[in-house]
Design brief:
- The chain is α+β, with helices and mostly antiparallel strands and 189 residues long.
- It is 27% helix and 23% strand.
- It has 4 helices and 6 strands.
- The strands form 2 sheets. A 4-stranded antiparallel β-sheet has the order 3-4-5-6.
- A hairpin with a 5-residue loop joins strand 1 and strand 2.
- It is elongated.
- The chain starts with 7 loop residues before the first helix and ends in a 14-residue tail after the last strand.
Length: 189
């Protein structure tokens, strides 16, 4: 069931137009004529409300989320899977993890994806782990990171569809044991 919000001023303006056109009821007038005029005003007001609120018919199915399917990076894993990283949006893909998790290089993804799958749920959800080292210092630091791949046409919630013959592939990448899973600046990932 669809619910629409119509402002009372919209209905009043519709009836005001009818009054200006001579449809307003006068005191002492014929009751039937007055009722016809009132019904005309109500029908015009409801018609105006339906125009302002959109179609009152059955609600259209929700459209899939908008996301950029263009490919930013691509590589093959040791098991022969061709894995791409799509630009995506703020929820998944390159645009998601470059901003939210501070991973900004394709080479970081390649480092994890060149090794075997670390976790596989056998339903297309794959996770690859990697380690980034700080270089050029006496005591280098390291940080572990994970690249998450959805190797199916659609995401598990059905919100995103890569299209016929395509895979969603890299959903996100993030660092472990860091605030907000955001990779540290020294990692230059």
């Amino acid at each position: 069931m669809a619910v629409f919000k119509v402002q009372p001023s919209d209905l009043q303006s519709s009836c005001g137009v009818l009054r200006q056109m001579g449809f307003a009821t006068r005191s002492g007038g014929d009751v039937i004529a007055s009722m016809k005029k009132i019904m005309t005003c109500v029908s015009v007001a409801s018609f105006t409300a339906s125009l302002l609120s959109g179609s009152a018919g059955a609600a259209a199915p929700e459209a899939a989320q908008s996301w950029d399917k263009r490919v930013k990076c691509q590589t093959d894993d040791p098991e022969g899977r061709h894995i791409v990283t799509r630009y995506g949006n703020s929820t998944l893909g390159w645009n998601h993890f470059t901003n939210r998790h501070n991973i900004k290089k394709c080479s970081t993804l390649h480092a994890a994806l060149k090794d075997r799958v670390d976790r596989n749920d056998n339903h297309g959800h794959l996770e690859y782990d990697g380690v980034a080292f700080e270089t050029g210092v006496a005591r280098p630091r390291q940080v572990r990171f994970t690249v998450v791949v959805q190797y199916t046409r659609k995401t598990t919630d059905g919100e995103y569809d890569a299209g016929r013959g395509q895979k969603i592939d890299v959903i996100t990448a993030y660092c472990h044991n860091q605030p907000g899973n955001k990779c540290p600046a020294w990692a230059k990932m």
